Amino acid sequence: MSATAATEVVSPAPSEAEELAKVLSFIEAHEVRHGTSPEPDFFLAGAGEHDRVELTEQLHAILKQVVQALSRGQSISILTRDQEVSTQQAAEILGLSRPTVVRLIDEGELRAHVPGAVRRKLRLADVLACREELRARRNRFITESSAEYDDADSDKAAADVAALLNEARRRR
Predict the structure, then answer these.
(1) 3-state secondary structure of 133
(2) Where does residue 70 rank: exposed (0-12), middle (13-18), buried (19+ CB within 10 A)?
(3) Which is the most buried residue in 13, 50, 63, 165, by most CB within 10 A?
(4) pLDDT tens digits, residue range 93-113?
(5) Which residues pair with 131 in a beta bridge?
(6) What is d(CA 22, CA 101) in angstroms, rounded to the nearest whole number?
(7) Helices 87-94 and 124-151: crossing angle, nearest 10°?
(8) The dihedral sign for the CA sequence 33, 37, 40, 43
(9) What is the value of pTM for the model shown?
(10) Whether the Cβ atoms of residue 101 and residue 91 lie closer than 8 Å to each other
(11) How far apart are CA 133 and CA 128, in angstroms?
(12) How far apart are CA 142 and CA 140, in angstroms?
C-alpha cells in the first residue's frame, strides 16, 4: 500500500486582489505590533456573532504563505500526505513489542508498505484504528469474562477455592 497524495492547485482570482492585499496588510501590521508568534490573536470568523475559531500557529503560517503567494499573482499547490510511522513507533503507540507489530503486519491485521529497500512504514491512521480495535477486543473479553464469572455459583466457587487451598497445604 502506498501513501495517498492529492494535489490541488489554487490560482489567484484577479477580482480578489484587493481583498488579498487587505489580509496581507493586516497580517504584516499585526506582526509589526505583536511579533510573528500568533498567541491567541488570530481567529477564523463566521457569519454569526460567536462563530469563530482560534487559528493554530502552524495554520496561521500556512495561511500567511498562501496569501503572500496569491497576492504576488502566483498559483499555489496544496499537497496532502498521510503521516507515516515506523514499526517501532507503531509498537510504542499500540503498547506492543516491535516483533508483535511485525507479526500483525505479516498476518494482514495491520497494513504497511516498504517505500525504500527495507524499512516498513505504516499509516498513522491505520495504527490508531488498530489501537482502537485492540481496545475494543480487550473490553469485549473483560465483559464476557466477567459475565461468565457472574454466572458461576459463588458457593461452589468458594468451595473449589477452599479445596484447592487444602490440597496445596497437604502437598507441603
Answers:
(1) helix
(2) buried
(3) 63
(4) 999 999 999 999 999 999 998
(5) none
(6) 52
(7) 30
(8) positive
(9) 0.46
(10) yes
(11) 9
(12) 5
